[in-house]
Amino acid sequence: MVKAKRVYFFGKDRGEGDASMKELLGGKGANLAEMARLAIPVPPGFTISTEVCTYFYGHGRTYPEGLAADVDQALREIEKGMGQRFGDPENPLLLSIRSGSRSSMPGMMETVLNVGLSSSTLPGLVKKTKNERFVYDAYRRLVMMYSDVVMEKAAGIEPAEGRGIRHQLDQMLSEVKKAKGYKSDADLDAADLRDLVARFKTRVREVLGKDFPDDPREQLWGGIGAVFASWNGKRAVSYRRIEGIPDDWGTAVNVQAMVFGNMGDTSATGVAFTRNPATGENLFYGEWLPNAQGEDVVAGIRTPNPLNEATKGEHNRHLPSLESTMPTTYRELDLIRVKLEKHFTDMLDIEFTIQEGRLWMLQCRVGKRTGTATLNIAMDMLAEKLIDEKTAVKRLSPAQLDELLHPIVDPKAEAGVQRLAGGLPAGPGGAAGQIVFTASDAVAWAKEKKHVLLVREETNPEDVEGMRAADGILTARGGMTSHAALVARGWGKCCIVGCSALHVDARAKTLKVGDRTFVEGDYLTLNGTKGYVYAGELPMISSTENPRFMQFMAIVDKYRKLGVRTNADTPEDAAQARKFGAEGIGLFRTEHMFYGKNSEKPLFALRKMIISKTEAERRKALDELFPYVKKDVKDTMAAMDGLPVTFRLLDPPLHEFVPHQAEERAKLASSLGISADEFEKRAEALHETNPMMGHRGVRLGITYPEVSEMQVRAIFEAAVELTREGKKALPEIMIPVVGIKAELDHQRALVDRVYAEVCGRMSVKEIPFLYGTMIEIPRACLVADQIAETAEFFSFGTNDLTQMGFGFSRDDIGGFVPDYIEKKILAADPFQTLDQEGIGQLVTMAIQKGRAARPKLKLGICGEHGGDPASVHFCHRAGLNYVSCSPYRVPIARLAAAQAALAG
Ligand code: PEP
Ligand code: MG
User: Fold this and answer.
1) Is the pTM of this model over 0.90?
2) Catalytic residue numbers?
């Protein structure tokens, strides 16, 4: 249902809406109203609510009754505020029409400016401004934008590549400039423009079969409809899909009095961030152009000037700052910056226009920023007492933290090479890869798992999919605030723009820099933090040694309730995870010592054990294996230095460990003293139809108790030896794939036997340890109360629990889960994000039953979900004691846990 109020006015010191009304008014409209309320100069205007957009799509692209009257009334208010009238021949008001959704979608929807210029209003405006050139320039911009946005795009016309009306008109403009020997648009005089507009109109009629509308009201409604229609434009739909923005939010439409930054040398336009969006540095950071309209800055057509002296860089030192060119206006703008930051307590992205010396604010919104900037701004604002600790913790999203953990170009390697070129550091971090010249190539190459850098002449929002797929983005033109730079930064992509030494030829797929030529597939390296480009592929390193990051994480830890452990199987991984703040190991997968580095000898012993037939053979192989297992167990506990380490007993798919190569097979056979034939028979016998549900986990320990015994002995002996060496050891023995209490009891008896034997042999009274199980089989959840009688802890193995709960084979989901997601049968891959409504019930049931039987039962999770932010929120609510995840996700889990606790 559309509510009665659909149109919200804002103007001098008054706004019918406010910043809290983003759902209804979109971000832009809500904040324009808020700025008006703060007595910040905003050109008067009104916002048509997102509910009208919903109505529009629900009713065959029509408007609710009475909307026209509401618009008229609000228009009258604008007229009053500006002392002008829309459509008036003497003193005409001109309007801008812009989109504005709840969450910002930079450059993804449409805008029409200068609405209201027509044959009846043009002469009056010329007379009033005494500037015919300006008026006709505004008119040619209107014709270009309107024919493109309203008459072509909104009408659903899809022209062939390069045949769009805007492109055609642009070409006509270029031809005039070329014919007359002009260098820039500014060289066109009034007569040129008048003539050009007349020809534009003819071309519009020829191409689109309709006249450009000469009635200001028709233009107004055409513009409103086109903005609503652009919500379902191609770019907007792609962007929403990538960003996860729901299709039903809709956009608002903002209609506002035009102010002009192109009325001569005392006029200007610019965009700025209240702090540096790439680094977070507390300096007013932005770009401006004299005698220009807003689109000139953001479209990346002209390389803009720096806002002030303090933020000038190597690339723009020679250009004039607003601070030096218009000092009074700059000071006024700087005061507004302070006022806005104080009010919104965040870094903002603003747009402004200066019309004949008078400053107008056109937009403010919370600024998109990199992970690094988010961290630095949150910590600075905390120190400035603008925000409190809890707010600081909430500011950084886990995804941004992930970005902080991403690599940078190795400074040592960088110091040794010559820079190829320099540009604006639009998105920090490093990226090395093969260059491609089109968005579609970037997508295709990335699909083939290649690292690609998308190289473009200028940034263009049409390229979103390619930008997403690329590891890094490099452009020859554009500024820090160009749309593509904003988008890349929001995604945490390494990005360099405005790199003017590049000559990009997208057709020939070549890039020239000085006398060097690079072709598609050649390697480049980008340092997006500094804006440096290098030829070739330089190495990357981790960026986590940042002290700011450590301080932030210390605050994070104050607020979380969940413990965070890691899944690590080697002393190296354990050490890395401790650096990231892991408080223990939640899953040590014993079988992983048989893969990778130094695994040859233990793997050989394991294979012998697998192929053994008799207990005697097996015991011999196990004796050979023992020292390797003990060493790994001991070194890992030593690396964790007294923090708990959960050792999961062997859970290997046995057949995977049988060698395939004839040579390996022969070696094994001879070491076991058996014939090749016998070997083949035994290997064949290991084959299982459904190994995921076969002879694995505890089943192995039941059929071959000596396998469990060897591991348990290694754990106890390692613990005793460490204690003797003055170190602490806290092992937890975990039994996998348990579904029946008796399985756990069986293994417990074995553990007790080995415990007594080791204590006796090593002359110790006690070895502290815990005995518990994984909960990863649905049956285990159903009988968790029984299992908890024996288990001192549960660790949810949500990988297998998801596999067996859904009946989806972990190894085979590639064939159908992507389709499930595409067809919206599942919202997410349940192996990445825990299925809270289904598998989550199994978890909560096991928790309730387990704790009922053993109130002090320790509960954790060690499936992949332990490092997924949404799943961590679930674990917090479910009351687990800890989550366990891979080392690089430990900081992410810590942050997600704190945010879950702060969410209440
Ligand atoms: C699990 O099943 O969730 C688990 C952690 O064990 P694995 O992935 O080794 O089967
Ligand atoms: Mg498992």
Assistant:
1) no
2) 483, 862
